[in-house]
Specification:
Strand order of the largest sheet: 3-4-5
Oligomer: single chain
Largest sheet: 3 strands, antiparallel
Strand content: under 5%
Radius of gyration: 22 Å
Number of strands: 5
Structural class: mainly alpha
Number of domains: 1
Shape: globular
Amino acid sequence: MVVRWLPPHATTAFATLSLPPGQEPPITNESFLRSYLEVGVWIRCIAMQSHVIALSNALSSRLERFAASAGVYQQIGLGVEDAVATLIAWSIWTHDQSTSLADIMAQVLLQTDRRGTPYSPKEMNALKNKFFDRKRVHVDGRRYLAALVDGVEARNIPRLFGIAWKPHPSVKLVSKVEMDFWNKLPATLILHINMLTDPMTQVASACYNKLKHGPQLTVGKPKDLLRQLAYPDSELQKMPETGLLRILMDGARTEMTYEEIEKKQAVAPFLLDDADNAVRLLRQSALDSAIFMFGLGRYVYGCAFRGHKIPDWPADHGLMPLVEAAMAECLPLQLP
């Protein structure tokens, strides 16, 4: 049997420019950051929205619902890794903005270890020196961000990412309608970093990685499991009737240790597949983070490229109904 990765009559999978050396310059920092603000920061939310639609469709098959629920959690994990890697890259780039931001992003190799504590000052210096030496850097983003802001006064935290924050900014950087967002930026940035370094956020990233490699999962009914363990009816009523995807974080092991329970380190979590929960995840996690990263990135752009027009909110991304709903609910991170 012949297995093809492309349809038999396909001629190419990508469009490339096979130009001789010297004919095309590298991507500029302005172009790279503008592309992030106009496209990159939104693509996880838009992809996740398609999965939410599938879960909301009563005609979706069982397999389609499994695929959609997996897709929701994959996009959550991707969005978290995007935000973590971007903040790391901005923090390194601010030391020398003549270097390539795209190259710094390529150096970031996110990894996760179970220590969870912030890097020591010595470890942080070693990581930064690797970036400055143009080496690929294996880094636990949560430990890095926690160490980066440790002991830093709130008003100075935006400067860690290249934003010259002050109470009375230039109107060229911050318009009058943005002042509320600007004034809350230091405190909101701390909240966002706390969210990214939270153990439950780490679980979302771990789910994404287990879905990516394998996928490492099984299908089970949590209600049946609790019934076998003689749990009371009051607990059984909280569980869904249907089978759910269960992500295997550590092979076949499903029982958590007391230490894992204390640290909120899930071993074999079930992925919820109801549409209401998926909408909440989209609005209050993925979209909330994207809105904030967009607002933060606009100021990174404005401080780095003075004289350039700062990218505006993209009107054609199809998320406006959700954004308006999020704003109506007064979510903590708001569009500038």
